[in-house]
Design brief:
Elements (H helix, E strand, L loop, with lengths): L1 E3 L8 E3 L10 E12 L19 E2 L2 E5 L3 E2 L15 E5 H11 L13 E4 L10 E8 L2 E12 L5 H5 L4 H4 L6 E5 L3 E4 L1 E7 L19
Parallel strand pairs: 7-8
Antiparallel strand pairs: 1-2, 3-4, 3-8, 3-13, 5-6, 5-12, 7-11, 9-10, 9-13, 10-11
């Protein structure tokens, strides 16, 4: 039995048993739109007090260290965030929120998510290891991440983006991940290798946990 992988070249296949040997079954073309790196927290305390003025850059590339995070970022090497040092976010989620709220375009940099992608849904990657493969100066670089837990939005989203964004972002705030390998992420076209099938058409959808009776 084989699975047809959604790749750039039509007809490419991978063996269905490849997952057992650690090889991803599915490949998805994505765009890395933003790589947000900041050495300090901007959102703390109460939103009415205003965000802190901290250096924040949208990098062309970012170096990732296994078990620690993105070099230069506020979560790098912090014990409390070892399993969630890198946050991946779907650009489609913020675009759908803007449509739902009728706000016009919202700035993804203000979410302060590290890696903003276009082209893939993220929720099925909870608990899974996946790889982002980029071309860095003619070299192929891969960073493997483990999806740790959902990135829940905070009340700051209503102040920094628009009223209602905090609630609308629930279930689509991104994925907090642990880096499994060292490597370099680069803005631009990339490939995401996944052990599970993903539906790019659902990248902007909210996935909420059912309420307990």
């Amino acid at each position: 039995m084989t699975e047809i992988a959604p790749v750039r070249t039509p007809g490419r296949r991978r063996a269905a048993g490849a997952r057992l040997s650690g090889v991803a079954l599915y490949e998805y073309p994505v765009d890395v739109l933003h790589l947000v790196v900041s050495p300090e927290h901007a959102y703390f305390g109460r939103p009415r007090d205003g965000a802190a003025e901290v250096p924040t850059t949208d990098e062309a590339e970012a170096r990732v260290v296994a078990g620690k995070g993105i070099v230069g970022d506020r979560f790098f090497g912090k014990a409390a965030h070892m399993d969630a040092a890198v946050t991946v976010f779907a650009a489609e989620a913020l675009e759908q929120i803007a449509r739902d709220l009728g706000t016009g375009p919202l700035d993804p940099l203000l979410t302060r998510r590290n890696v903003v992608l276009r082209g893939v849904e993220l929720h099925p990657l909870l608990g899974e290891e996946f790889t982002i493969r980029s071309d860095v100066g003619g070299r192929v670089e891969e960073v493997r991440l483990r999806g740790g837990r959902p990135a829940h939005p905070c009340a700051w989203m209503d102040r920094m983006l628009a009223p209602g964004v905090h609630g609308a972002m629930r279930g689509r705030g991104g994925l907090r991940c642990m880096p499994v390998t060292d490597g370099v992420l680069r803005r631009g076209p990339a490939v995401l290798l996944s052990p599970v099938a993903l539906d790019p058409a659902r990248a902007g959808d909210a996935v909420l946990r059912p309420r307990l009776p």
